[in-house]
Amino acid sequence: MTNKKFGPSISCYDWTSIVLILAASSLAFLPLVGKLGYYHDDWFTTIARISGVNLFRMHLVDRPVLGLWYAIVSFILGEAPIAWHIYSFIVRLAGSIGLLWLVRMIWPHQKAAGTMIALLYAIYPGFLQQPSANNYSNIIFIYSLSIYSLVFTLQALYTTRRWLIILFTILAVGISGFYLMAYEALIGLELFRIMMIWTILNRYLAGSFRLTIINALKKFLPYLIITVLFIGWRLFFFTSSRQSTDTSLLLKQYLTSPFIMAVQVGVGLIKDLFETVIGAWVIPGYQLGINARPLTTLLAIVLSSCFVGLMLVFIRFWGAIDLNTEPRSELEMSREATILGLAGVLVTILPIALTGRDVQFRIFLDRYTYQSIVPAAMLITGLLYLTLRSGWQYRIATVLVFLAIYTNVINANVYAKNWDLQKQVWWQMSWRAPGLAEGTTLVVHMPPGYRYPEDFEIWAPASRIYFPEPGPLKITAEVLNAETLPAMLAREVTGRNYRGVIYNRDFNHAMITSMPSESSCLHVLDGLNPEISLAEDPLVIQVAGISRLDQIVSQGSSPTPPIIIFGNEPDHGWCYTYQKASLARQNGDWNEVTRLGDESFAAGQIPQDLVEYAPFLEAYLHLNRLQDAEDLAVRIVTGEPKTAQLMCKTYQKATTANSQEIAEQAISFLCQK
Known about the structure:
The protein is mostly helical. The chain has three domains: 12-416, no CATH class; 435-554, no CATH class; 571-673, Serine Threonine Protein Phosphatase 5, Tetratricopeptide repeat, CATH 1.25.40. The chain has 27 helices and eight strands. The protein has helices at 12-29, 44-51, 55-58, 64-77, 81-106, 111-122, 133-158, 162-182, 188-204, 209-237, 247-256, 258-277, 283-289, 294-325, 327-354, 373-387, 392-432, 456-466, 485-489, 538-543, 563-566, 574-586, 590-602, 614-622, 626-639, 641-651, 657-670; strands spanning 435-436, 441-445, 476-477, 493-498, 501-506, 510-514, 523-524, 552-553. The strands form three sheets. The protein has a four-stranded mixed β-sheet with strand order 3-2-6-7, covered by helices on one side. Strands 1-8 form a two-stranded antiparallel ribbon. Strands 4-5 form a two-stranded antiparallel sheet. Strand 2, helix 18 (456-466) and strand 3 (476-477) form a beta-alpha-beta unit. Helix 14 (294-325) packs antiparallel against helix 17 (392-432). The chain is elongated. The N and C termini lie far apart (91 Å). The relative contact order is 0.09.
């Protein structure tokens, strides 16, 4: 090997490739970046802030090195979601440029193919967690770093200067040790590394196949040592409390049922290979597209088409480059890229399959494609060059890029809508509840498609608003589903240790809140007289009776959700009026309720969910404004008769003498129309 490829100058073509990658990445990830926020595990930084259990301690259960890095980045970036999204974009872009550098060294005469590989990696549509930047930026950073480890490995191969060989090897091995300790799923990249070394040696060194293998193993020896040390630490010294990362438990399963587990792994490999390489370009876009609104679809198409125009100009450039410099090595490159890519996808998917997990294009499970994107991009590019006539590979690549940008834009819009609803919930909660009693167990049931998978997605933001000082949790939460419903109905006390944060959920002090539909306000249910929306989930109806309105501290000034996270306070529209009127009703301030209602109705504000008229109907009856009450009842009955029927059922269950008198009047207006 010679050192002629060490430190190559950056040509005009390289700069053009970088600009192309930057343009595609910007169109795919930046148009909606200002509307994105926190999702699922993104609340880890908030959990660390309000619980007193720092990020490093939280990750001692599975990935302590990752937790340490996460804590450092969190200290630098703070709480602003936009900072995390920009950081995530930059580190992914840096990985794309690193990959361009890598493939330039592997196939120096195939510049167009190298650009294609880096471009497909940059906007790969099979990983949909990019908007969940606070948490997944860790994986994106580590994977980008792993690409540079591969780059330094090749630099060590190409140079003959001893000090440079040592320097690049130290860098590559050091990064390898870091990313293995941080994210064990990347261990398959070490097998990809030796395949890459063998590919280079096989091309440039004369000798037998056996001799090439021996030389490759010698070059790989430092990485093998670090990999063996990592495996030994993971198997014999580190104990994980998470089942999915507990290697001793997995080993026991394989020893108990070796044949069944082998079949499971084999089937999983084939399935995940197809989904990672082929399905990723079609399935997510289809799933997201069929539910997208027309304007969102139009935006995605326009942005994708903008890049297609740029791509067409670049294709002419590619054609000229290919014609002049690349024909003799194109077949060799296509074969190497296909073989290296196919083997690379299999070995990087293997750790995922061995742990019983698999690629699925639904919530969170698409993350298992990420460790395989580099070899997948190589495989796709190799196949395009191997099977298509000259020029057609660029046209198909353009279609893939169009689909990738389209998918990522629509995906970002889904996340943006999710964050908008989350912000609505917490601003409305702050308007409705000046305070929450210590020991409250909060249930927040979101509209279909936006429901929380984990309880910390509720208690973390709620605690940040109501009890921001670090320490044991003063309020907890639970998600509502078929599994949690029995404990709620039985008013049990359940405990949990979530990554070192220990707390109990006491359903004797539960407060049930719900946003039945995207157009509804947040409804805080009163277990004594629950007002049920026509759009309400049956599970909420079942559990409504346990909701305690007295968990709200109804006196005092309302807290302001941290603007750095939740943005500026929304305009005071209908939901603001509804929340303040509901608070005034809880305090028995009927004059305030009617004042709010009169001003709102005069301004033309009306609810989309007609059950939200209830506080105003009741206030008019209390103040003997019967004509106003009747007019409001007519709106409900004529607007949505079934809502009127549900409200009738609530009023028919009134218990106290005062509430019975008001209920009888409400029934006379609502139930006899």
